[in-house]
Amino acid sequence: MKSVVGLIESKLMPLAGRLAQQRHLGAIRDGYISFMPFIIVGSILLVISSFPSDSYKAFMASIFGEQWGSTIEIPFNAIFSTMALFISYLVAYRLAERNDIDKSSAGILSLSCFLILTPFSVDAHGAAVIPMEWIGSKGLFVAMLGAIVWTETFTLFLRRNIVIKMPEGVPPAVQKSFAALIPALIILSMALAIRVFFAATSYNTIHEFIYSVIAMPVRHFGTSYFGAILTVLSISSLWSGLIPVP
To answer: What are the residue boundaries of the PTS EIIC type-3 domain, all occurrences included (predicted)?
Structure first.
């Protein structure tokens, strides 16, 4: 047992510490931490509505009506069914914070690109709607990867001064808005090109491609015996190094 602990302390802990210093992983971590309170609140409401006790459910129904459970779950569904949107913004925001660029512009740009990559559908009345399938947990891979790619591209444009420069005396907020104009135009065009490209493939969307090629194999491996062991070890070792890092 001591040898295992020693191995973890000598090999895995330094690795976890180095991973914690990696700015992209740090941005993902900080983005999720920012969203964590809402995940906890939604989970608490889900527990309240799904508490495994018939007497409890009968008591709540007698006070709040038969539909009390579905009513309480509305915030849970609102949070978890759209979490990819928030993660897309927050990861880009935190990465922009580390890159010392305009955080709000980076977050909005990332969210806009995510929506461009997310296919709209048409309902029975002919109205365009966003399918909930890809803005929830199934869209997290695209949200995280996209946030990193778009923010790094945005950073590259700003650092090379590929921006519209305003004359002196213009308010800083206006300067930031116009500075993001050219990078936003190019990056949004890149996102549109990616959407058009995947629309011509059998996957139809980048969401379906990422989910089929990356997410599904990872999920199948994670449900295996060795995958479960590796998952627990990875979570324990990584978080032991990531949490203490400021």
So the answer is: 8-246
Give the C-alpha separation, 35 to 8, whole Å.
30
Q: Distance between CA 51 and CA 58 in Å, rounded? A: 11
Under 8 Å between Cβ of 62 and 122: no
Residue 147 burial by Cβ neighbours in a 10 Å radius (0-12, 13-18, 19+) = buried
Could you give the count of Cα atoms lying within 13 Å of 161 in the half-sphere of its Cβ? 2
pLDDT at 169: 74
Least confident residue range of 76-90, 153-167, 217-231: 217-231
d(CA 227, CA 230): 5
Which pLDDT belongs to residue 56? 85
> Distances in Å between the alpha carbon of 179 and those of 104, 112, 172, 243?
13, 17, 10, 35
pLDDT of residue 6: 61
- Residues recorded for the chain: 246
Question: pLDDT grade, residue 108 (50/70/90)?
Answer: very high
